[in-house]
Automatic annotation (TrEMBL):
Gene3D superfamilies: Heme oxygenase-like (1.20.910.10)
A Gene Ontology molecular function term of the record: heme oxygenase (decyclizing) activity
Protein name, as recorded: Heme oxygenase
Example GO biological process: heme oxidation
Organism: Agaricus bisporus var. burnettii
Pfam families assigned: Heme_oxygenase
UniProt keywords, alphabetically: Heme, Iron, Membrane, Metal-binding, Transmembrane, Transmembrane helix
Transmembrane segments annotated in the record for this chain: 311-335
Record flagged with keyword Iron: yes
Amino acid sequence: MIQHDVQMQLARKLFHRSDPRRPTQHASLCSAFGAEPKIFMLNSSYISRQPLATLLREATKPSHDRANSSVGANRLLSGQLPKDQYIQFLMMLWHVYDTLERQLERHSTHPTLEPTYNPALLGRATPLESDISHLLQVPVSKWQSHPLHTSLMSNMPDQLRSYVDRIQYLSDSSDPSPLLAHSYARYLGDLSGGQIMRRTIAKAYDLDVTSGLGTEFYTFKQLSSSKKATQGDMKTIKDWFREGMNKCKSEESKTAVVNEALLAYDLNIGLFDTMEAHTAAENENPASEKSEGYTSEQPLKTLDSGLEKTYPVASVVAFIAAACLAHFILVVGGFTGDKGYQKLVAITGWLSSIF
């Protein structure tokens, strides 16, 4: 209840009720504030005084908190997604970024979009392809034909389809300026959590964080060089991006971008929801069949990580035989008593590491 009150206070600060017969940017504008869908218009006097970056930060704060509190987001951020689910999440992101970045290129000279258009710096579609290919252990040219991807596309989640369709719709419209809202929601989010996520993902899926293989999506270059960006460099990039957004002075464009940003957060939350639903379905039916030709890999960090390992019978027999042989050699060699026992323990430990 308290959170809802805070959200509505923010809504009243930014918005005022308009004639309900007038259309808005999208019908569910106020749903991001936890209220019943209503028709709002941005407060003209307030929006004219504030830079776009400030308006976006204030308007999307409740949506940002809601996204971070979702089950799917928490499992992703803690590295607890099964590996195949994580790969499919990257695949969904690739479709989002591939669509977004092609449309940003299409409108790269638009006055609202041009100041933040820098594909060499921000582009994520290519790093995502590299990570997906590495995780699947297939060439970059082959990952889209992998069973994990074909199964995703044969039953594309509604949330992913809605996201991609929305971006395409904006690009085809008479005013593509709201595409900036999707750049804001995605790129600034990636820049803010990139370093932490890179280490988390590398640890969860046993990746080499030094080489960067499998975690290129979370890595950016410096603003003015090809060197890898540090946390401080990423802050510099975010400041540059905000300055570019603030070059948008049109009240109409500001209104359109802020409205669209609320929807952009809803669409991103939808992607997290697909992972949550997938997890719930697997818990209900753990024996469900996987796509033909693909064996699901289990995450390195799961609730069952404390369970004891199991071994094939043949391996157990071979281990016992080797241990008996080691004991025989020690006895024949004259290593008995405490000295012999210590050597036997050492050899047994070595054998355990092999089997």
